[in-house]
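Researcher: We're teaching a course module on how sequence relates to structure. For the next exercise, students receive a sequence and then see the predicted structure as tokens, so they can try to spot secondary structure elements on their own. Here is the exercise chain.
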Amino acid sequence: MNNQEIINLLLKVKQEVIKIEFDNPYHVWVFDNSSYSKIEDDITRLQEIACLELEKTKRAEQTKVTLLLTTDICWYSSVDDYFKALRLRIKNNKENIDGFYIENLQQEEIESISNSSKAYIQWCEIFSKISDHVEYDDSNAWPSYIFVMEGGKSKKITTYNLPLKNIEKDFLNSIDISPCDVSTLTSVDLHSYERKLVLRSSLIELYNDSNDKISFLSSILQSPKKLWDLFSINYEIYINKYSINKIIHEVETQKLDFLSKLNSLVQEHQTKSLSIPAVLVSTAIIKGWTPSGLLLIFIAMLLTCAVVILGIRNARNSLADIIESSNKTMVLFTKENVDENDAALTKKINQITTDAVEKLKIKKRSAEKTLTILEGLVFFGVSVWTMFVLYQFKDDIISKALTIIQSVKDFLPN
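Model: And here is the predicted structure for the students to work with:
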């Protein structure tokens, strides 16, 4: 039988009680015999629970049941006792108190305290995640959260001790969790570190501005909106100043890498294209021309032009591969850095990567244009060279042509 079932059974039995006495540390429940007969089976079941130490004494008109009601079954004499037990469970990393009973409280009041307890546990979880260390006092397990902060241009280290202690009777019921999105603050994802860092600095900023340092955390639990508002503002600033700048730096690094590849590709073929003018100049300064020399130079020129043209066309394919690779890299980078829970950050990252890809595409078009011009210049140079060679051998060519024509005429019948 779990604690909740035990409590439910005790409360059922308690409804028949006509008087409650105390024999410290025991409760003595007094029943008239007619009422006791209705719950006798339940009493028998409760006797099986060792920690209750239940004993019954039956007399002529009344039956007395002595039992030990302790925190072992989550039965509390006051809200203070319950709250202390809750703090001890948090200190010892034990599970939350699911079913419990507090004497002299209505069920609605107990449910309200249960909801407030969940909020308190969530706040303790948040503070423990963003602080550097947690200390508890030995007597009542009140927590104190230690923050070690480095601030200012002097890089001075400052230690803050923020106690979470409030002995007011209604404190537990006054705790609020809204409008803070606890799941967002405590979830483990790509940007959880940034959120914790900003929440930590926002909390210390409010603490420094607070006039009542002792009850500062208590006031945050009772009115968290001031912390949430400051966190929202500071987180937006952090995104713009740090996260976005970091992403821009990474995107620019990737973009420069691809631009370097594009430039290297174009410069390589610009250098190769210079071999064409070199051939033109070398042939122009030749003193004596012979048919065999001309044939050798002509073949060399054709091979040089073929190599250059093939290289330029291969470079065009390489340009397409580089742009395709850059697109895939940017898409992967975007997927790794976007946060579905942060629309503003996602929008900015998409804008940065889109701009980078567009600039690479513009550079690709410029590189393709340069390669096309180089290809055109090669053809132009070869054409000029061909006309120059033909001009140098015009007399021989005309003589050979006339000889061939005359041979053809002689061969043909009259």
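Model: If you want an answer key for the exercise: The beta strands are 19-23, 26-32, 55-58, 62-67, 75-76, 101-102, 133-136, 143-151, 156-163. The mean pLDDT is 80.
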